Amino acid sequence: MTVLSGFHQRLGLSLLVVLAVAALAAPLTSPAGRRAVWRVYLRCCEVAVGLQALIGLLLVAGGRPPRNGLHWVYGAAVLLALPLATRLAAAGPPERERLVLGAGALAAALLALRAVLTGG
42 with 101: CB under 8 angstroms? Predict the structure, then answer.
């Protein structure tokens, strides 16, 4: 379990960087030109966050719960932030899509930071 715990910590820190890049890049992407690439990048972020959550659940099942119960709250919030932002972006006007997705990535990055700080 120690190897899995170390991987969980390193993946959490990597997610901070990946989500921060997404938050910073969103306003800079062209509205039409790179939309498909942008969506793939965000989907990859969602998959990585899902993998992080799965690893966390495996650690709990193996007897290594987080040191702080808030880690559960922040972890769940990170897991929901990008899918929620994607839904909100799809419901609004296309011109607003990259800003909503960028805000969702920023929220996910900040929540991931809190998850790292409350983790174990």
Answer: yes
Contact (CB, 8 A) for 61 and 21: no
Secondary structure element (H or E) that encloses residue 24, with its range: helix 2-25
Q: pLDDT for 3-13, tens place per residue? A: 999 999 999 99
Could you tell me the pTM of the whole model?
Answer: 0.89
CA distance 72 to 68: 8
97, exposed or middle or buried, with CB in 10 Å at 0-12, 13-18, 19+? buried
Non-local CB neighbours of 42 within 8 Å, separated by 6+ positions: 22, 82, 86, 101, 105
Which of 8, 21, 10, 19 is CA-nearest to residue 51?
Answer: 8
Closest C-alpha among 110, 119, 118 to residue 15: 110
CA distance 118 to 103: 23
Burial class (CB in 10 A: 0-12, 13-18, 19+), 56: buried
